[in-house]
Design a protein that fits this description.
Largest sheet: 4 strands, mixed
Number of strands: 4
Organism: Sphingobium yanoikuyae
Number of helices: 2
Oligomer: single chain
Radius of gyration: 15 Å
CATH architecture: 2-Layer Sandwich
Protein name: Tautomerase family protein
CATH class: Alpha Beta
Strand content: 15-25%
Order of helices and strands: EHEEHE
InterPro entries: Tauto_MSAD, Tautomerase/MIF_sf
Distance between the termini: 23 Å
Structural class: alpha/beta
Helix content: 25-40%
């Protein structure tokens, strides 16, 4: 049920590499949160130099022109230990599948109440109702 939004620089990743990113994100869900493989909701957006601003050295990093921003909306119920494992899995899988350097992956997790997720039909299977 997490939603990935990956913001990548235009022209730095091929269509095959973007597809491999989706696979990396999916595998990181399995590794970090023990979720099923079919729990796949990913948006990948390309941005030109006037639409993606990532400081090359902030946080003592050495980012390249392939640096990406990944935002993941997750249920607020996940413990910190699982979130750490999940973050590590994202970086590991992106490195293995796409060759993204660890310093090139900026991640933000956004926890929200489970009842705010709807898979379709306008209802949430997690909303207990009033």
């Amino acid at each position: 049920m997490p939603l990935f939004q990956a913001h990548v620089p235009t022209g730095r990743y091929t269509a095959q590499q973007r597809t491999a990113m989706v696979e990396a994100f999916t595998e990181s869900l399995v590794d970090g949160f023990a979720l099923p493989v079919d729990d796949r909701f990913v948006v990948i957006s390309e941005h030109g130099p006037d639409g993606l601003f990532i400081h090359p050295t902030y946080g003592d990093m050495k980012r390249s022109d392939r640096a990406i921003i990944v935002t993941v909306v997750i249920p607020e119920t996940r413990p910190r230990s699982e979130k750490r494992k999940f973050l590590e899995a994202i970086v590991k899988r992106l490195g293995e599948k796409v060759g993204v350097a660890p310093d090139d992956v900026f991640i933000t997790l956004i926890p929200i109440p489970r009842e705010n997720f709807s898979f379709g039909r306008g209802f949430s299977p997690f909303d207990p109702g009033d």
